[in-house]
Amino acid sequence: MTRFGGPEALVPGEAPDPVAGPGQVVIDVSVAGVTFVETQIRRGVDKWHDKPALPYVPGGTVAGRVSSLGEGVDPSWSGQRVIADLGMTGGLAERAVAVAEDLIPVPEGLELPEATALHTDGSTAFGLAEGAGILPGEWVLVEAAAGGVGTLLVQLARATGAKVVGAARGTRKLDLIRDLGADAVVDYSTPDWAERVREVTDGVGPNLVFDGVGGEIGRTAFDVTANGGRFSIHGASSGEVTAIDPTQARQRGIRVIGVEQLFDFGPKMREWAQQAMSATVSGQIRPVIGQTFPMERAADAHAVIESRGALGKTLLLI
């Protein structure tokens, strides 16, 4: 990235081989994850992260094998299959430098693409589920239910014994959500989608909403939330975080769990990632990898995410 802009601002380039410093390792990257937030950072419009200094290599999550160790790193890491959180830069490359203490071993029985799909989205989904407290028998509405986080939230809610309404846009996404076990699906590009949610929840509304879209869809989802329910905000793919009137929430007895919850996830992300990988190995959940691209087509990967055409997780492969 030599400038901020559209997907076309992502261009292939060459750089010297990275060298591991003290406490660091070099990873031979096999898979790199791509997130919606990274597309907004690329455009220079993300509100939650500082702009990287140009030029920079984007990408925050990678999986591969540790190829070299810096001073002070445990020798047992050498050659291990790992996933690593690099922050927001450095991942879309054949080799990447990571802090050794941020490495997570990939368990036997799990392939690197699946591990990458679970790292950030799996951690986030497990964190959201823990914070909101999904209960057996209650109705849960998952917005953007065909996305990386949404597909996992649908499965976690079902595994807990909750009933799920999955909301997305378009037949292809709704079919995927049904396949994941949702009890009902709604297309929020239709004007009567809120009425459909009320109908399938026997007129009461969902007891819990996972709001990853924000904007008008988020506000409509809040309006349909059952009195005494919970409204958990974790994203704003519409470009605007859902604005909730505290007085209205208090009058209806709705507990709003704001997007600020994500700021406290850091210390537990590693634990949640490991839980997500274990749950996948045991067959409780499965990550949905909707599309993959070779690294040199990173621009296409960003474009499909921004177009809302992506299913599940989007990955870059080397």
Descriptive notes:
This protein is of the alpha/beta class. The chain has nine helices and 13 strands. It has helices at 36-43, 112-132, 148-160, 171-179, 193-200, 215-224, 246-252, 269-281, 298-306; strands at 24-34, 61-69, 81-85, 95-99, 103-105, 139-142, 163-168, 184-187, 208-211, 230-233, 255-257, 289-294, 313-317. The strands form two sheets. Strands 1, 2, 3, 4, 5, 12 and 13 form a seven-stranded mixed sheet that branches. Strands 8-7-6-9-10-11 form a six-stranded parallel sheet, sandwiched between helices. Helix 2 crosses helix 3 (148-160) and helix 2 (112-132) packs across helix 8. It starts with 23 loop residues before the first strand and ends with a strand. The mean pLDDT is 95.
Note the run of SSEs as H and E.
EHEEEEHEHEHEHEHEHEHEHE
In total, the number of strands is 13
Count the DSSP helices: 9
Secondary structure category: alpha/beta
Distance between the termini: 19 Å
**What average pLDDT do the residues reach?**
95
Shape designation? globular
Q: Tell me about the largest β-sheet.
A: 7 strands, mixed
Question: Proportion of β residues?
Answer: 15-25%
Percent of residues in helices = 25-40%
As residue ranges, the low-confidence spans are none
Sequence-ordered SSE layout with sheet pairings:
Blueprint: E1 24-34, H1 36-43, E2 61-69, E3 81-85, E4 95-99, E5 103-105, H2 112-132, E6 139-142, H3 148-160, E7 163-168, H4 171-179, E8 184-187, H5 193-200, E9 208-211, H6 215-224, E10 230-233, H7 246-252, E11 255-257, H8 269-281, E12 289-294, H9 298-306, E13 313-317
Parallel strand pairs: 6-7, 6-9, 7-8, 9-10, 10-11, 12-13
Antiparallel strand pairs: 1-2, 1-4, 1-13, 2-3, 3-5
Helix pairs in contact: 2-3, 2-8
